[in-house]
Amino acid sequence: MAEQSEDRVGVYLDFDNIVISRYNQLHGPNQFAKDKARHHTSGHAKADPAVTARIQLAMIDIGAVLDYASSFGAIVISRAYADWSAAVNARYQRQLTDRAVDLIQLFPTVASLKNGADIRLAIDVMEDSFRLADLSHIVIVAGDSDYIPLAQRCKRLGRYVIGIGVSGATSTSLAAACHEFADYDSLPGIVSAAQLTAPVLESTDAPAAAPSAAVVTTPTVQSLETQAASPAARKAATALLVRAMDLLAKNDQDWQHASTLKQQMKRMDPSFQERTLGFRQFSDFLRSRHTVVELDKKTPSSPILLRLRP
Prior knowledge:
Elements: E1 8-14, H1 15-27, H2 31-34, H3 49-57, H4 62-70, E2 74-82, H5 87-90, H6 93-98, E3 102-105, H7 117-131, E4 137-141, H8 148-156, E5 160-165, H9 172-177, E6 180-183, H10 193-196, H11 219-228, H12 231-248, E7 256-257, H13 258-268, H14 282-288, E8 293-296, E9 305-308
Parallel strand pairs: 1-2, 1-4, 2-3, 4-5, 5-6
Antiparallel strand pairs: 7-9, 8-9
Helix pairs in contact: 12-13
């Protein structure tokens, strides 16, 4: 039987807000508007390569946001609100649909290009909260102070409210209105703005993925794993393990239960199965990553505890 979580999470992304905020964070105040980045088409013959590079550098890692949200429970609702006809947003469609995020189309209705995402998002959150009594957590990905009343109302309805925003573009009052608020830069797997804006920037190819540790296994495990999975799959499994452990670390416990870790990894990547990597049990997979995690099992009947190595 599939594992069920008693906590159910709804994720709501004000996508224009987070994309523009990240761009301005990396490239300067109001630079998104100055560069006319909203409708910049990278493949166009007359496209400014400098703007193309800045857009690529400021790409949002949707996976990191959803992985963080999944650490609170099973994601049962995920919606992103934006004008998806805008070129800067359209490049995210595959990334979002691959993670089963519903794309809510909002066409600009005024000259300022404001699309009313805050109103539509707030209505949907309220409707879902009244319709789904078991929706326990609300994750709002935005930094706009307009969401303060929404966060306060969700708290009064008994929901646990988590906010995610970009540093420098987030209202301190909104952060105070949530039970928890996370800076996008602090999410596991995200390269911080300070690192991205360092003097040497050699690559702007893709959003940063979770740093993966080297995989060193015993000869027996390695041979089984080599037959079952590609190097890319093994590396991805290790990266998934590290990111899941980083997310679980927020509970202030040094040692984590293996069962809790597996549940978190399955939330982040439902396709994860240790058997596809050549392991009969999850504990075998963990032992193969002995350079990444330290295991503690005092007796055969005791649960497996583990922690990341320094």
